[in-house]
User: What shape does this take?
Amino acid sequence: MKIGILHDLYLPLESNGVSGEDNLVNLEITLLRELGHEVIDMRRHIEGFKRKIFQASVHASGFGNAPNFLDKSIDLIHAHNLNQLSGYSWLKDSKVPVVQSLHNLRSFCTISIGWRNGENCFECLESPTAVIQNRCGGIYGISGSFRHLVTQRSKPQLSHPARFIASSQMMKTLFSKVIDKKKIDVIHNPGVRKTLVDLDNFDERWLFAGRFTEEKGILDIVRNWPEHEQLDIAGDGPLFQQISLEIRGKSNIRLIGTFSSENKGIYSKYRGLIFASSWMEGSPLVVADAISNGLPVIAFGTSAVKEQMEKTHGGVYYGKRVTPEGLEAAFFQIRSAGISLRRKCYQSGVEILSPEIWIKMIEKSFLQALN
Assistant: This one.
């Protein structure tokens, strides 16, 4: 099969950055080629002021640079992020089937995450004017609403693809309000293991890894963290200064910076991963990676991480909000399970979360689109 991969990179390809979506597309291209498919890699990235101009134009109008492989002899296009350069208008001109991955809520939400005033918000599913009424995202949100209300009221990003890939049943249920659910395939994201893992050697420290934003739950974790437990916080983001102030004087909590997406070996050094996202995430890559590397997960929040917990039995899920009582109960449960839980996590990486299983499911979705 000759497949065109279209994805507007968030970070330069050579940066090996922290964008999960970028890393997932890297993995897909590699695995498709290993399966014998011919892949046309049309990922694009521009820097500086030109990038900002393109982003603003695509976001507000939906008209971007049409991908230049539309006229080539290919069988199918797999589209990921279209919000930086590509836009959405080209979809109606595509001569071949398009499979669109739904990594976030940008298809109907101008700020992409469906989050307002500390809660999930999906009002724009019912009314595109909600973003203006609620003043979401400031000027950025208002300009984005122009595309939904004026230039692309037909929503080509929802009406034209032959099939869609959602990374959780939760996301499929949400998008079924605007897309025929028969066209949506649920394919949970894989976990990647880069090194051999020593399951028996680890510290009694816990790990948080993610972007420092409100919806990720990092502030709830820090504010409810017990004095007698050790926590390492990996990542960066808008709340960095606030977190630094929150942990001042707390010797049991430390910031360790970001780590490369290639450094999967870091996971096996800890007792467990703490995950507390409350926004609509599909199947977070950090959770899949942790479990695949033998690291149990303690999860809170309202994301689809609960599906990962139920599917892999790779940890414990303790409800919507982080509480001291919930943390203590989770710590006890993880420790009581001992090494057997770490082995179960590692095995789930082979039997459930492996990239090889994931790419076969994507290949099946492609074949359905062609048929």
User: Anything to note?
Assistant: The chain has 13 helices and 14 strands. The chain has a mean pLDDT of 89. Residues 106 and 165 are 14 Å apart (CA to CA). Residues 355-370 form the longest helix (16 residues).
